[in-house]
Amino acid sequence: MKIALFTPCLVNQMMPEVAVATLSVLEKLGHQVIFPQGQTCCGQPMTNSGCFNEAKNTTMKLLNAFKGVECDAIVCPAASCLVAAKENFHEFDKSAEAKAVIDKLFELTEFLHDVAPVTAFRRPLNKKLSLQLSCHGIRMLDLAAPTEYMGPRYNKMEALLSRIDGVEICYPERRDECCGFGGTFSVDEGSVSAKMGKDKAQAHADTGADYAVGFDPSCLMHLDGTIRRKGLAIETRHLAQILDLAL
Amino acid sequence: MERKVQTHAKAAEIFCRDESRVDWHSKALWVLREKRDRAAGSLPEWEELRALGSQIKLHTLSHLGQYLETFEANCLKRGIQVHWAKDGAEHNRIALEILRRHQVKKLVKSKSMLTEECHLNPFLEGHGIEVIDTDLGERIIQLNHQPPSHIVVPAIHMKKEEVGELFHDKLGTPKGQSDPTRLTRAARAHLREQFLSADAAMTGVNMAVASEGAVIVCTNEGNADMGANLPKLQLHSMGIDKIVPDMDSAAVLLRMLARNATGQPITTYSSLYRGAKAGGEMHIIIVDNGRSEMMRDKILGEALKCIRCGGCLNTCPVYRRSGGYSYGHTIPGPIGIAVGADEDETHSSPWACTLCGSCSFVCPTKVPLDKIIFHRRRLYAERGSLPYGKGSYMPLVGRFMASETLLNTGMAAARTALAILPHSLLKPMSGAWGKYRELPTAPGSSFEGWLKKNRPELLVKSTKNSKGEN
C-alpha cells in the first residue's frame, strides 16, 4: 500500500527514532511510504485546555498537509495524537476533502493488526516486554479491551507482539491505569501527575521486563523521565522499535 | 469545616506531600475497584445491563415532567405529602417548616448527598434543631466536623486509628482503641440512643419509582431504616433525576448499583418506602437545584443519568491520589466535576483529570464523564475563565504550533539546549516537569531533518499547503 506518514510534533521534534522505526517497519513490510511536508501539531494541547479557537490554525495546517495527497492510508505512530487529529479535523472542517483525509487515518497498531495484518516475523527476539496500555489507544481507539469493560477480550498490541518468537509478554499491576502524562496535566497538576508516573514506572520495573513497550510516545516520554529519575532497571520502547527488530 | 478556596492542583500538591498516605488512600479505593471488577465480571450480561441502564435513564430524563407528575399523583394516592423545591434554600425552608410544625428538636438523617449539596445541617442547627447523621461513615465525619470525602464511603480518608482517637474524644471509647469491630459497637450503642430520642427521620433517595409512588433507599447498615421506622415523622429528599419509571427499571439499576460501588451483589437493605406509618406522616421533597438548567446542555445533561454508585471515584487515578477534599465541590471525583464544577471558584476542577476515560467505562449508566469534563473545559474557555494562566499562554501555544518556522526553530533551540547545557541548569526553567522527572534526552535533529538528509525522495507536498512557510 501507499502510506503517508503522519508524525505528530512530539515524535517529529523529540522522538525521531520512533518515526524512523515506523518508516523502517512499513518499508520492510513492502509498503511505499511518503512524508507530506508541513505537518504541525494536532491541536490537542489547546483543545484539551478548552481552547478551540487557539487550536484551529494549527489543526487546519496539519489537515491541509494531507489534503489531496495521493495515498491509501495515513499512518501515525501515536495513538493519542491520532484520536485528537481525527476529532479536531472533523470539528474544524466538515468538507468532503477533510472527510477523505479522516477516513484514511490509522494508528500504527490498528494498521498493522486490522488493515494490513503482519502475520510473520523473520527474527526472534529474546526479550521480556511489559506492555503499556495507554488510555486513548485502548479507550478511544479500541486497541485493547479496557479492564473496566466486561465484554469480549482483545488486545491488538499483544496480538502483534506475541507473533514474534522468543518474546515474553507481561503487564504491570493495574495494567491500564493512566500513567499520568495527560499533556498539560503533567505541568498543571505536577504532583499528581508525577505520582501517577512514578507508580506506573515502578509497576513496569517490578515485572522484571527488559522494556516497557507502548504505542503512545507521549506516555513513553513521561515514563522514561520518571524511570531515569528513579534509576529503575527498565527502558521504554515504542512498539515500532520492537517490531523493527523482529522484521 | 469551611473549604479553602484553592486550585485542585494546590490542594493535591499538599495531599501528595505524605506519599505513604497517598499510597494507602489509593489502595483502599483500588480494592473497591477490584471488587467491582469481580462482581461485574460475574454477570455475563453486565454490558447489556449497562446499555439498558443508560437507555432507561435517558428515556426517563427525556420524559421527566411526565414521570414526576405520575410519581406525585401516585404518592398522593398513598397519603404521602409531596413538596417541590427549586433550589437548596427552598428545600431547607420546606424541611424546617415541616419539622417546626411537629416541634422537632432532634432529627436523625442518613444517606443523603443532596442535603450536603443544600447545606441542610448548618441551616437546621442555626434554627435550633439538632441533626444526627446516622450512617456510620457520615457520623464519623460529622463528629470530625468534615464533609464527605466520597459519596459512598464518606470517611474513606480516615485511618482506623484516627477514628479511634475521634471516638475516644467524642464517645469515650478507651484511648488507643482502633479495632474496627469494637469501634463499630461503640458507634452502634451511641446511635441507638439517638434513634430512640429522635423526633423525626430524614433519608436520601436512591430511586423514586413513578408507577408506585414509592422511594427506594439502599444501605448496608440499616441505620436509615432504623431512623425512618421509629419516629412518626419521616422525610425523604430527592433530586428530580432520581425518578425511574417502574419496578422493572429499578430492578435493572439495583443489579448494578451495589456491584459497581463495593462489589456486593446488592446492598444489605434495599427498602421501599411507600407510605406513612399509622398515625404518622411521610413527606418527599423533590429538588431541582440546577438540574433542569444542566439538561439544557445536551452534553452536561447526560450527567443526570448517574445513580451515585461512586465507581468513577474508585477508579479515578487522580481522585485516588488527591483525595475528596481537593475538588472545591460537594461531590468529588469525575461525577463531581460533571455535576458540581460550577461550585469551584477557582475553575480548576475540570483539569483534575487526564481524560483517561476509565470512569466512563466503569459507569453503570454510561455517563460519558470524560466527554463532559472535556466539555466543561471548553465552556470555561468560552467564558474566558480558564485556570492556571491558560487564558494567557494558550494563544501563544496556538501561534507557536501553527507556524512551522516557529515550531522548527523553537524546537531546534530546545534540542540544542537539552544536548549541550547541563540539566541542572535547565531544570529550574522546566517547571513541574523537571521537578519530578528527568528532562527528555535530545535527538540530534527532527525526523523531518533526518528525512531531508537521508531520504529526501520521500518528501511530498500537498497542493493545499504549498504556500505554507517552511
Automatic annotation (TrEMBL), chain A:
Q: Which Pfam families match?
A: CCG
Boundaries of every Cysteine-rich domain copy: 3-83, 134-224
Q: Which domain of life is it from?
A: Bacteria
Tell me what this protein is called: (Fe-S)-binding protein
Lineage of the organism: Bacteria, Pseudomonadati, Pseudomonadota, Gammaproteobacteria, Alteromonadales
UniProtKB/TrEMBL annotation, chain B:
Matches recorded under InterPro entries: 4Fe4S_Fe-S-bd, 4Fe4S_Fe_S_CS, FTHF_cligase-like_sf, Helical_ferredxn, LUD_dom, LutB/LldF, NagB/RpiA_transferase-like
Q: Which residues form the 4Fe-4S ferredoxin-type domain?
A: 297-318, 344-372
Enumerate the Pfam families for this protein.
Fer4_8 (PF13183), LUD_dom (PF02589)
For this UniProt record, the keywords arranged alphabetically read as follows: 4Fe-4S, Electron transport, Iron, Iron-sulfur, Metal-binding, Repeat, Transport
Q: Which residues cross the membrane?
A: none
Task: Check the record and name the PANTHER family matching this protein.
Answer: LACTATE UTILIZATION PROTEIN B
The name under which this protein is listed is: Lactate utilization protein
From which organism does this entry originate?
Shewanella jiangmenensis
